[in-house]
Hints:
Layout: E1 43-46, E2 50-53, H1 59-69, E3 75-76, E4 88-89, E5 91-96, H2 98-106, H3 110-115, E6 118-119, E7 122-123, H4 126-133, E8 137-140, E9 143-149, E10 154-158, E11 164-168, E12 174-186, E13 191-192, E14 195-198, E15 212-214, E16 221-225, E17 232-235, E18 238-240, E19 243-253
Antiparallel strand pairs: 1-2, 2-16, 3-5, 4-10, 5-9, 6-7, 8-19, 9-19, 10-17, 11-12, 12-16, 12-19, 13-18, 14-15, 14-17
Amino acid sequence: MPPKSKTKTTNTRTAPTAKPQTVARPDWPALTPASPASDLECSSLLPSQILTIPRLFTSSLSAKYVAFLRSLPLITTPGRPKRGDAVRVNDRYQIDDPDFARHLWEQTALKDLITTGEIDGEVLDEKQRQDLFGGEILGLNPNIRIYRYSEGQFFDQHYDDSNNLMFPKDDGSSVPAKTTWTLLLYLTTCGGGETVFYPDPPSRKAAPPPPVEASPEVGLALLHRHGKECMVHEGREVTKGEKWVIRSDLCVKR
């Protein structure tokens, strides 16, 4: 059962963001072949909370990235977390790379779909978009994280925190920003490994709504609210194969 409130929750928050590894930036593969925005749909798995974009990465691009990511120096997270942190067992790589974050935002259909495209078949005006995403959208968090979940690995129930940062602009300056939505880009399909969300009940006496599940699919982008609006969620144990994920966050002005 998920916790009833964030104030009473223990062992469900995300571990503090680790300092990015001080290594040379990877020579990321080109983001081609890319799926055009006109061929894709952004739809709600849960209105105003969870959005999905199937096939943001093509199957060939996903395979190319998985092959490349295997060459990175992934580090296995400790099996025994610090007190108050959620249990997470996976292999991960983390780096600050504004160029790759910008390319991922601009060279895929992500920017067009989020800033101007239809959501659930409806074109939102600027106010509706800012209400949904928490402000004026800037792009993706330069802090890029790569996750590999092998058989038996998982991420226990937790919340994703919102973070403040200085968002880099093309002219070399930066603007105060904050993260409002998590981006998970799945590169593989696997057995198990579902990302499961637990909506809060409408009242203390009401039964909790059923969980909302998102299964890893090749090329699927999943975005969900985090910070104060975050639902408790988990990454279930992988039972077959591997789950590869590119993680970033949507950034808005603050």
